[in-house]
């Protein structure tokens, strides 16, 4: 199973926002710079995350974006389900008549996707941050 770049940036955006000091806000331009991504692409991701109530935003002098929930409240499986546009295992543009045997293939792919999502359901954004901190500390120890 492979997630889209869109979903990847959604997860990374939330990870970035969760590492900011309490009360600090960010912007789509800042997130785009951190991940060396298109500002337009990140702006779309942020708008979607905002519509899903993962991010809050405000305009003006003290405006910006920030997490609407704590990292421990953000379930990765639910997030992926909300951001991915095709979790059916078959290309939405493919006609059923083009797949042989269609029924068996669809069931097999859906079983795999369900197992993938069930695994993701066991993790929160906070779990990803813990792993990131462990990785960063290992890299730091190697440099020292």
Word description of this protein:
This protein is mainly α. 56% of the residues lie in helices and 6% in strands. The chain contains 6 helices and 2 strands, in the order H-H-H-E-E-H-H-H. Helix 1 packs across helix 4 and helix 2 crosses helix 3. The mean pLDDT is 83.
Oligomer: single chain
The total count of strands amounts to: 2
Bin the strand percentage.
Answer: 5-15%
What global shape is seen?
Answer: elongated
Q: Please tell me the overall pLDDT.
A: 83
Helical stretch tally:
6
Major β-sheet annotation: 2 strands, antiparallel
Q: Please bin the fraction of helical residues.
A: 55-70%
| SSE series | HHHEEHHH
Q: Using the CA coordinates, give the radius of gyration.
A: 18 Å
Strand order of the largest sheet: 1-2
Describe the structure concisely:
With 144 residues, this protein is mostly helical.
Please name the defining characteristics of this protein.
single chain, 144 residues, mainly alpha, 6 helices, 2 strands
List the helices and strands and how they pair.
Blueprint: H1 5-19, H2 28-34, H3 39-51, E1 55-58, E2 64-67, H4 76-83, H5 102-120, H6 125-143
Antiparallel strand pairs: 1-2
């Amino acid at each position: 199973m492979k997630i889209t770049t869109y979903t990847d940036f959604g997860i990374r955006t939330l990870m970035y926002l969760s590492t900011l000091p309490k009360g600090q806000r960010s912007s789509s331009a800042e997130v785009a710079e951190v991940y060396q991504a298109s500002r337009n692409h990140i702006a779309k991701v942020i708008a979607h995350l905002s519509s899903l109530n993962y991010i809050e935003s405000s305009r003006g002098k003290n405006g910006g974006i920030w997490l609407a929930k704590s990292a421990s409240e953000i379930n990765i499986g639910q997030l992926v389900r909300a951001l991915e546009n095709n979790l059916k295992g078959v290309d939405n543009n493919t006609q059923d008549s083009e797949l042989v045997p269609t029924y068996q293939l669809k069931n097999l792919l859906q079983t795999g996707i369900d197992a993938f999502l069930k695994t993701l359901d066991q993790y929160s954004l906070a779990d990803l941050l813990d792993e990131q901190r462990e990785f960063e500390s290992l890299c730091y120890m190697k440099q020292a």
